[in-house]
C-alpha cells in the first residue's frame, strides 16, 4: 500500500499577512506546496490529504484544481474549532483551532495507511521525501514512527524569529523534543527566548520542521491526549496542541520509538513576507540545476 502525504494547510498566516499556503514562488506562480507534492509523487506516495479551514476552501481548491488529480489521489478535510473535540465541549472561547496535532487528528477519517505530515509553507527537499517513503513502506509499525530532522543553521529566517522543536537523540532514536520559541540571531550567536530571557542554542542542533512519518495507530493515541488537553486548557483561547508534544509523550511513556532521519537539505519557507524574495531565488536555482522542470504539471 502506498503511503499518504498529509499537508497541514489550515494556518492563519498572521505573521505573513495572508494565505502563504497558496502564494506563488515558482516561475508559473506555483506555491511551495506544489513542489512538495511533486516530490511526493516521484517518491511513490499514493494520496495527498489537505487539512484546511472551511473559509479558505474556495481559494484553495481554485489554486490546485485540475493540476495533479490524474497523478495522485486528492482529499480535503477541515480543521475547525469544534473538530474532534469531546461531545458537549464549549469552544466559543477559542480564537482559532487547536494546533498542529489537532490538525493531524482531523485527517483520521481520510487516512488508513502509514503517512507523512508536512507544513504547507515549508520546502523540505527531494531526498527527504525519498527517505521518509522508504521508512513508511519498510519500517513503520504501530509503535515505530519517524521524524526527518533538519540542522538548525539551515532553518533560520533572516527576517525574524522562528519556533522549532529542538530534538535530542541517541543511537538514531529520538529521546526528546522541546518546542523552543523565538529562535534567532542574537549577540553573535543563536538563542531562543523563554520568559523574555535569551538561552543559547547550538547552531548545529537537530530541529523538527514538522516532517513526520507515522503509523495510523497514532490517531487513537492522539485523540486520547487531545481529550485531556481540551479539559486541561479550558478557557484558554490560544493554547496549542502540538505534534512534538504528542511524540514526546509517546516516547516518555514507551508507547513508541521514533527514528531520526537527519537531512542536510536547506530549508526554505515563508514565515515572513520578507522571506519571499529569497525563496523565489532559491527555486530559480533549483530549476536551473534541473531539480524540477520549469512546468511541474
Task: Describe the protein.
The protein is of the alpha/beta class. The protein has one domain (4-288): Spore Coat Polysaccharide Biosynthesis Protein SpsA, Chain A (Alpha-Beta Complex). 26% of the residues lie in helices and 28% in strands. It has helices at 32-43, 57-64, 100-105, 126-138, 218-232, 243-252, 276-288, and strands spanning 4-8, 47-52, 73-78, 115-119, 122-123, 144-151, 162-170, 173-186, 189-194, 197-200, 206-214, 257-263, 268-269. The strands form 2 sheets. Strands 1, 2, 3, 4, 6, 7, 8, 9, 10, 11 and 12 form an 11-stranded mixed β-sheet that branches. A hairpin with a 2-residue loop joins β9 (189-194) and β10 (197-200). α1 packs across α4. The longest helix has 15 residues, at 218-232. 39% of the residues are buried. Mean pLDDT is 91; it is low at 13-17.
Major pleated sheet: 11 strands, mixed
| Domain unit count | 1
- What is the annotated CATH architecture? Alpha-Beta Complex
The residue fraction in helices comes out at 25-40%
**Termini gap:** 24 Å
Mean pLDDT: 91
CATH superfamily: Spore Coat Polysaccharide Biosynthesis Protein SpsA, Chain A
Q: Count the DSSP helices.
A: 7
CATH topology title: Spore Coat Polysaccharide Biosynthesis Protein SpsA, Chain A
Using DSSP, what is the number of strands?
Answer: 13
Helix/strand/pairing category: alpha/beta
Principal-axes geometry comes out as globular
CA radius of gyration: 18 Å
* DSSP strand content: 25-35%
- CATH class, named Alpha Beta
- Unreliable sequence segments: 13-17
Order of helices and strands: EHEHEHEEHEEEEEEHHEEH
